[in-house]
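Need tokens for this chain, all 618 residues.
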Amino acid sequence: GIALAIAAVPEGLPIIATVTLAIGMKKMVEHQALVRELLAVETLGSVTTICTDKTGTITENQMTLRKIYLNDHQIEISGTGYKPEGDFSVDGEKIEPAAEKGLELTLKAGLLCTSAELTEEKEAYKVLGEATEGALLTAGRKAGFSKAGLKEEGYQKLAEIPFNSDYMYMAVSFARPEEAEQLYLKGSPDVVLEMCDSILINGQKEELTQKKLDEIKAQNKKLGEEGLRILGVAFKESESLDSEEKLQNEIESSLTFLALTAIIDPPRQSVKDAIKETKKAGIKTKMITGDQMDTAAAIAREVGITGSENVISGQQISKASDNELRELIKNNSVFSRVTPENKLQIIEALNKEDEVTAMTGDGVNDAPALKKADIGVSMGKRGTSVAREASDMVLLDDDFATIVTAVREGRVIFDNIQKFIYFLFSNNLSKIIYIFIGILFNLPLPLLAMQILWINVVIDVFPALSLAWEKEEDNIMEKKAASEKNIMDSSFKKKVGLHSLILAAGPMLLYLWALNGNYSLELSRTLSFTALAFIQLFHVFNARRKSGIAFDRTVLENHYLWLAVGIGAVFQLAAIYLVPLQKILSTAAIPADLWLPTAIALIVPMLIIQLLNAFAAS
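Here are the structure tokens for all 618 residues:
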């Protein structure tokens, strides 16, 4: 009874599972994915839907102000990145920004209505704050304006309404000596246009007619379809703008529209291939952004996200009933003008569809959605500390492709967990069968409790642990997600049962042969103990690939497996021939002439299992 109880418990399982997950965490860090929760390593292999931000995750987050639409014409701006070098031109002809009041006012508004800073370090320019605001700062510097310069001109900040994804704008007010106080506002073009009743044309205010409004909206749509991120800019001269409350009151009344600013943020080169890989793996990618519909659709189309022709707005999500919401989320992949609350709604709808979700986020308001997702993914470079604390994984490079790499690694880990579970379960069941047969036929106990414990703790653990370093299976990202499978399904149980019986058969036949050959009980038991230990040691080769084929082109790649087998063999020989261990384990030295039947008892079951695996694979 004691022997059976020991045989039934896989003592190494908790240790091996923990170490395997820890190894997975280490591998993911090497791929720029820092996993904060140990169990998230395995969960990554089960992901069926990735909900990702656009800016900085799918795109480079290297914003550049490329075009400004004002005065019925389009101004091109040269230069890329944050280096403040470039020219302004209309139809190929260079212009001076200061010569056009509307352009000068737009660029100054871009400088004043920001909370970011542009700094220079070792001849490289860096933005402290939002990349979008960095593009506006850079454009202002290209025209010869700067925050410091405007401050010297007497601009003094009075009040500010910070940007909020709920109302999609930011506003500030400034005062200058002997001039009216000025309000500057930037945000979503649709939101900004709703606040305006006039427009600045050639330095003069004119009524914002329906015709003019339609022209601006058409231009906004055109720029958005080019994949540009559009911001509307407006201003107003007034009095008493020295508090947020007064500023809010002025915003709600008439503003003067200045321009549309079109910012380019090119997709990362790695994203297209990563999205192709998710499609092969049956993983759905859903892009969630605060940008307008046309911009979202253009970027989604460029990187290959399915369903980019139909974009769902955050407003549609907010108004939808539970059933409508589930259908919207299930059947669409691109979502624009989304608030943090909408992100949470999307995750909840996907969870109701039994999807295993990964959600990216970088802001404080993203924390609830990150917590609700099966895998919350925060940004290492631009993410807030609150978002990182709420997440399970941090992208150190903010790259969408890193998520896909982490999912791939999660699938490898899931496979390897399945392999060592098969290895340990079949080994332990073979010992149970072995002991049970001995009891059933009233034989002297074929294995002692200490011998079973030795095999479980010393012989089995190192090979099982080495499976954590097994290379990925072929086409691992073209198979079903791990969540759709049960490790202990009927085929797995049948396989474990049959292989356990075969593993037990060789040592049992050797034990019976030794007993009938008039060898001592101690030596007969040692022969069966050794055969069982070695067959379970070499059984790791049956477990190393899901096909069960022991030797293929990858067999030499896992050095830890060969080291584990070598260590196990040395320990087992020590258990037979070292006197102190002989006393503890009740073993006897095996004579040289008995190694041949011992070898046959362990080789033949291995060959039978390999033939069965080859037949099943064919």
